[in-house]
């Protein structure tokens, strides 16, 4: 009998000792150096047996981690040495650049052989980044039905449900009984590797409904399928954006959903594990865009990373010159009172910080659709309240500190007033800029930060230097 | 026969026309104003029948959206009017503040009645935020087994797998056959509402293994359970942090996982829908922390939101004074050349932007464990390369523009050199600050931004003003 704490399963006839998976990671979840050294040595010795024994037993994600930790030469050697024993699904777990590098070094015949054993969604994931010529050559070597299935998924645009779907599914006619359905599943050899739902279709493949597996198991054999199926309210059109599909999964707690073509014919199934990846990617995208970085990956080279970051820096540079020219308006005043030059970055910077707080909240709420016409007014009023309140608190604080630093209460008063104004403006900009961008169909995560900080810089410099110029009579 | 496009299901004996769910949202996924007005009118008229007809048929998440769109008085009236027809799982879909408000206004008897119908994870979600007195009173009114189950989950600390688990599960002994298991599921009335896995246990509830439902359906009736179960390598200790548990789900593409106590006895099951929520929360947390906001919710009041944002602004204010005092060192130089005051925010600001790009990439990579001892060195070198390259590009650019703006090539040269230095320092700070914080057990998302911008401000002001002072001979 198997036991939970029995980490070394009885390997039966062949006397190979499996590496227990939990042991390849240390307590921080990082691959152990000793394991990596062991695999590195096996690659150097071209010890195919050791690799098949210690790598083939790992989960695809563990092989993915291993590939990412190896050097590029070692990765390619590992895949080549393992041959048919290498699990290609591991390639869906690594950075794009690493996958491309490995696949580019493999003969098309080996790729064609490998993708036949994969679920169609994994096969598509690997094939979609290849150049058209290689892809066609690989597809040409596949059996007919396999080729048709992959082509169908590849024909849908990137980032749609059709691209992410698995084309293997279980479908039965409505007039079958539960008993017939169970017998069919016991006998058919071509079932998908795992599934949590079966679909009900008419002879033209039009989707009629779906049944969760637990429902089948609870129902007596004589009951008809059409009597226990539920309507598939959440069937996903193949052309639907993957992010939208992910939101349906999240909202309705789905494990899988039927994917249908424009005639409502069942063409595939979208599963929660792919959707989890999409959710992660989308959350990551917002974070990266707010931070001014695009679809960068850790494995990108210096040149690629540098190039991807230049546009944002360039836009910021232009905006920084705009803010600087506002300072230039008051050069005569600064020459008289250098303290203004010392204090002005505080006013502008605090505005930027407060604005980015409001903006972060707003961008996130837009992404999760938590902000809409019903609460937008209330949230704008709330942010104005926060801006007013925090403006007054920090105005008092900075007024006291700056006034005593330069032993000049008037200067303290001027910086206090401009700080209060700028924090209020920051709150307004922090909420209105992303809302406006969203309204006009632009991605608020990409452009909000530049607009908000430019507004707080310009308003900060202008109110502070302008007030001082007026008060001290330099006009 | 049901059809996909038949949105109005035949309601059978009772002649109630169901509101088709898809129709409550407009094309942007926002609740329709007409629907909201209709429900608002029904609440005002205390039209219980209309509410039961049009709200009770909605999915819990749709009722959640409805509650969030209603005014506080309307929400409480809706729950009160619907009584037992109100689906309490909808309360797990709304902001904490809204849930607390509704629950606080309900009699404990009604809550006790309602949570009995819920899955235990939903019941715990609603009970955990109540004050201890109310919670005890509600628990006291529950049947014995229900009470024990909920107590067990509530005894585990917040944000652990034990808190999030569902205590209803299907478990069978290893010597049963597939046929016996299916018969048991057909007859037992106390099965959980839905499940995707059954567990195998010994008489003391020790976990022996698990079987996915599709595996059961594919296997002949005579086969023994112990022959098809797989070892549950991924059983989750009840005390494990929910984020760690979510990472296991993600890595191994799990739909559900057994939760075990310290004696490896099965106490519950963690399901992917709860995990998806955890993944969302954790991604959101990083984004919010980088933006300087804590665990704020959209429904928080002005006072709550204001207070939660003050600490970050305060730390930034202190740091801004540090940067300002660096400018103060060079007041004599600024008085001679006011152009320096005009240009210095550009040098500091561009450093801040470049630093936050690197920092964003690093914080995200740390959160997803994509950065470790194997690639840290390579990534640090890459960021230094990017800093050097972009530093040179933007140094050239700003040198030319600033030099011609003030018709002073020497000033152009000085700003170019300080820009190159500051962008290189920004890259270093952007990667080393989060890595160091993480090394010492601090959350890099919380504190990185303040450190990085302080470093780029100080270095930007110091190199630019210092170089100018030295070059133009004011020392």
* Fraction of residues in β-strands of chain A: 5-15%
Number of domains of chain A: 3
| Overall spatial form of chain A | elongated
Q: Please give the alpha-carbon distance between the first and last residues of chain A.
A: 91 Å
- SSE string of chain A: HHHHHHHHHHEHEEHHEHEEHHHHHHH
**How many helices of chain A does DSSP assign?**
21
Query: What oligomerization state is this entry in?
Result: homodimer
The total count of strands of chain A amounts to 6
What is the spatial order of strands in the main beta sheet of chain A?
A: 1-2-3
Return the CATH architecture of the largest domain in chain A. Answer: Orthogonal Bundle
Average pLDDT level of chain A: 88
Task: Tell me the name of the CATH homologous superfamily of the largest domain in chain A.
Answer: SLC41 divalent cation transporters, integral membrane domain
Most extensive interface, chain pair and sizes? A-B, 133 and 133 residues
Helix content of chain A: 55-70%
Describe the structure.
Two copies of one chain form a homodimer. Chain A is mainly alpha-helical. Chain A folds into three domains: 21-160, MgtE N-terminal domain-like (MgtE N-terminal fold, Alpha Horseshoe); 171-271, CBS-domain (Roll); 302-471, Orthogonal Bundle (Tetracycline Repressor, domain 2). In chain A, 61% of the residues lie in helices and 5% in strands. Chain A is built from 21 helices and six strands. Chain A has helices at residues 33-44, 48-55, 60-69, 72-82, 96-104, 108-115, 120-127, 132-140, 144-155, 161-164, 178-187, 213-218, 225-228, 242-252, 272-290, 302-328, 331-336, 339-367, 376-405, 409-439, 444-471; strands spanning 171-172, 197-201, 207-212, 236-237, 256-260, 266-271. In chain A, the strands form two sheets. A three-stranded mixed β-sheet of chain A has the order 1-2-3. A three-stranded mixed β-sheet of chain A has the order 4-5-6. In chain A, helix 14 links the parallel strand 4 (236-237) and strand 5. In chain A, helix 18 packs parallel to helix 20 and helix 20 packs antiparallel against helix 21 (444-471). The radius of gyration of chain A is 30 Å and the shape is elongated. Chain A starts with 32 loop residues before the first helix and ends with a helix. Chains A and B meet through helix 3, helix 11, strand 3, helix 12 and helix 14 of A and helix 3, helix 11, strand 3, helix 12 and helix 14 of B. Chains A, B: Belongs to the SLC41A transporter family. Chains A, B: Homodimer. Chains A, B: It holds the Pfam family MgtE_N.
